[in-house]
Design a protein that fits this description.
Elements: E1 2-5, E2 16-23, H1 38-45, H2 62-68, H3 72-86, E3 94-98, E4 104-110, H4 114-133
Antiparallel strand pairs: 1-2, 2-4, 3-4
Helix pairs in contact: 3-4
Length: about 140
């Protein structure tokens, strides 16, 4: 995890971002639509994700994308943003990039308060793991 506090490689417009280098391990080739009832569990736990856009111009279509299949790193990004939004720290900027190394993605998202953003990053990874394992 790297915490950015000013203009950086990832974003000039959003200087307060967190960059996670996420190793997807056994799930590097797994899309959300390949995990039974993943979208149902995610929507039940975070109904506010329905307001998230999945790609540029795709407003309020996050769950539609999850049902069609997205990488788990993309889910981590949105959960981290939603955790902050639920805490009244409106954060909307986030992107996920594949790294040159197979199975490693970069998850980039904005934060309002540094410690809250850091916590959201760790929690988003743990929550995503729990949703995958249905625990």
């Amino acid at each position: 995890m790297r915490i950015m506090r000013g203009p950086n490689y990832w974003s000039v417009k959003n200087p307060k971002i967190i960059v996670l280098r996420l190793d997807l391990e056994n799930y590097k080739d797994t899309l959300t639509n390949e995990i039974p009832d993943f979208s149902v569990r995610l929507e039940k736990l975070f109904p506010g994700l329905s307001d998230h856009r999945s790609t540029e111009g795709a407003e309020n279509r996050f769950f539609e994308s999850v049902r069609k299949g997205v990488w788990l790193s993309h889910v981590v990004e949105h959960i981290a943003l939603e955790l902050q939004n639920l805490s009244c720290m409106g954060c909307g900027y986030g992107l996920t990039y594949p790294s040159p190394q197979e199975g490693i993605d970069y998850v980039v998202f904005a934060y309002s308060e540094e410690r809250a953003g850091e916590y959201a990053a760790y929690a988003a990874v743990k929550i995503t793991e729990a949703l995958v394992k249905d625990t």
